[in-house]
Amino acid sequence: MSYKKISLFPDGNSYAYFNDYIKRLVIANSEGILKLVNVDDFDSQPVSIDFLSNLTSVSFRNDTLATTTTEGKLELIDLTKHESRGVIYRSELPLRDLAFINQGNRILCGGDDNKLVIIDLQNDNQYKTITLPDQLLNISYDNTGELCSISLSNGEVQIYSVFNEELNLLHTLTEAIDKKINLSTDNIDFNNEHNDEVYTSKTQWSKDGHFLLVPAVNNLIQVYQRSDWTKVKSFTSDSKIIDYNLSGSKLAILTLNTYKVVDFDSTRTLHEDDFELNEDALPLNIEWENKSSLFIGSTYGDILRLKDVVQGGGATEKDTGASLFMDDLEESDDEFGKSDDQTEVNRLLNHEGEQPNGANGVNGKRLFIDDNDNVDLDDNENSILDDDDDDDDDGDEGGYSRPPPPVQRNGFKKHKASPTSMQPSPPPPPSRFYTSKIVPYSPGSTQFANKGEIVDRRYLTMNNIGYAWIVINKDPGATSSITVSFFDRSMNSEYHFTDLQKFDLASLNQKSIVLGESTKGTIVYKSHNDVGNDSWEKTLPLVKDEYLTSICITNSKANNTIVVGTNLGYLRFFNEYGICLNVIKTIPVVSLAASYGIVLMVNQVTANVYTYTIFDIYQDYKTIQQNFPIPLKECKTQLIKGMFFNEYNDPCIVGGHDDTLLVLQSWRETGNAKWIPILNLHNAITEYGSNENKLNWSCWPLGVINDCLNCLILKNGNYPGFPLPLPVEIDIEIPIKLSKNGKRGDSNGAANGEANGDADNEEMEVDCEEQFLRSLTMGKLLSDTAANYEEEQLSDDIDQDSIMTKLEHYSTVFDKSLIKLFAEVCKQSKLNKAYSIAKLMKTDKALLAASKISERMEFLTLANKIGQLREQLLVDLDD
After folding, report:
1. In this structure, are 85 and 201 located in the same domain?
2. N or C: which end of the chain has fewer CB within 10 A?
3. Does residue 650 fall inside a structural domain?
């Protein structure tokens, strides 16, 4: 071990931080100077950056540094450009701590005014506040679980979920830390009047997010287990703790005169020593340079570097970790001739949707797939490239990295769209070109957000109930975790667990979640409340080249059924306890969704040709619709954007190519089902393109309920990110309009005034037509449900009375829309059109209203014809 004193400041409180992103020691001095030091060359001149004085805290996000001060200011600093970005928030009282959250999209800060402030960096630094029970001391962020722990002056530690736009208080640890009140309002004099403020009150999360470290009373660091917030271990110190820092499995603890490093897992002390600072300087913080060396910040300007305080760290350990992966790559060159190339290729094609060895295939060889889904490897130099390959330099969409071309990710195909025809594509030439591959997909799932970063995440599934998301940690020996959360937290509490399987499939209902790992064929069932310890795991007997492509779980009142589909068309059914109930062979399965026993299955016939099948599990797997064409088309975003059922068991789907919500009408009658468009998502959120501020917005569907699309509005990208916006409801609207409230012409002159009037009349007509068509469409759907009410399971809050009430509402809207449309057409003296509208009316009340309108406008012939329609209606009713 070696010591080095870094004296770059004559005075002031100096905090030491090692920024791994820019590979520099960052020394932040309370006098308002920031220095970036190259630790590999201390003789080089450090970079100096001016910033605000009276520093209280710092937080890093890549090359951006955020600081707070006792003056209540929050400043951003660009460490690459070496300049301040300015103050983005001000508080009347001192700010004490801050943290970047949600992948750097937001900042949390707070201090003496008893408020937690959430600043949205993606939305002009707008902020919201949460009132706290006492002054805020510290903030600690768990990147894997999207949680923040807030230390308060009254000794409490509050745990917030920061996953959504609105923060949610999950738990409070009472009497967890020493009560502490910060009194400094200007320069912080740790050596004298503000001596009590030097002792830590910060909490820290373990890297995997499973544990929370809390500086408890009696010189303890108490470790809480996130799953149930119980104390699982503690670390002791001989005196009051000034700071501590956990890196991997090594915990460094700093006191006034000593420091020690302990093993987090075993609590064994690895190293302990004292240190010396100039004059009466006090230590301020302890920071890991790497896994073996430390920095200590202090008052009176100095920084202490403690090099190689523990064995087996630093660059050597990193190289060793990296070699675990490099050895595999090096061996593959020799082993490819001995092993099965096909097996290796299949593994890579289905490993989290990416090819680890680059977009060109495996170890410099390019992948080719023939008509029989056989995969081969060619050298890149001799490969035949699609023209589409040249189009994959467009950059990321919505902040998500694009996968290697041109493998389809059933969800996510990243090359030019195929022709719009539903006819099968012509067979490829004898040479080995790509054909579409089915990539494991669950409704509501997304791609990984930050490929290339150490920590990455994606949504495994999302629906009206909630969502499951996985965090992958690529550090050697690190584990991944899955979190299950709910939009209605009164029904279930958020929970998480370690993911040892690297699941890539999921399906969620009110009671439980089922997860799948596609390549091994492993499925896991978990109850949300783990009642009766009913969780189980099962590995399916896959045949050669087979892998899971989709899973779903029904949502019945009693026992539910899990359905698992594969790329070779095997369909397996299990009950809640893992008993296999049935196995069916069909064509390759693309995606599955289920409601109360009704299952919607999408299959791939050939490239860009898809069909759907509907069957009823609880009627002995009765097939209701089988292998009928479904209007899906491969595109640059995703094949399927949403797939779910409404509350009346009607299947719904949103295709990625046209962003339109479709509902399946008359599906209970074999051969008579038809897909009806009931909302264009893009038009709905952009106001038919009339609002320039919303043109780049997109919509993520969750489900349909109460004639509304429940969805997320995404202002920055095509996929839900972090934080997750709150769900909103958009009214269903049959897509027959050109624009919303569109005006034609201008305001100059009477002629233009007349043109505007015509446009208004036309707009009103279209509105009436849409209302008529919507009430007719939704009424037919609900009427079908009413006729089959006794045979199907529905939600507890849906009974026959509620169905009849809603049908009456549709009937009223139907009549009113036609009457209004009839009156509007009569104003324009379009009598033939008016009569055609009258013939659409189904009730005597509506026809009577139309007759009175005709008489009032003195269209007596039209009134007589409507009278005849009324007479015929009475005759039909008598029959």
Report:
1. yes
2. C
3. no
